[in-house]
Structure to design on (125 residues):
């Protein structure tokens, strides 16, 4: 099926006018992770950037927004060939997320340990 533009809205980077997102090349979909628990770069995903929908499909953009199909094509141009840009993980912004998660990791482990101890206390033997 591919990736729908609606699925990319959360991954839009306004100042660069691109969608930047983790991609799962095995399943051909946006990479899904529990980002608040990730501690290393995902080895099964890549990070890519693709142009904004208006650049990729200006005619479809015009139709969707109720404009004439050819409106603004001279200004935006019409290309038929696009390639996703592969972005190294260390330039994706994930380093900050990983650092935060590593700081939180000992806290999570302590909470899990306390829950285990509490559940053992409540058991009848």
């Amino acid at each position: 099926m591919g990736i729908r533009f609606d699925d990319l809205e959360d991954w839009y980077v306004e100042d660069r006018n691109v969608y930047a997102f983790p991609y799962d090349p095995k399943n051909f979909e946006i990479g899904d992770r529990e980002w608040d628990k990730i501690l290393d770069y995902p080895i099964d995903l890549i990070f890519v950037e693709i142009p904004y929908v208006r650049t990729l499909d200006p005619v479809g953009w015009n139709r969707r927004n109720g404009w004439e199909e050819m409106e603004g094509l001279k200004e935006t141009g019409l290309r038929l060939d696009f390639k996703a840009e592969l972005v190294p993980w260390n330039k994706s912004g994930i380093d900050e997320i990983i650092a935060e998660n590593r700081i939180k990791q000992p806290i999570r482990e302590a909470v899990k340990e306390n829950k285990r101890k509490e559940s053992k206390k409540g058991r009848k033997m």
Summary: The mean pLDDT is 87.
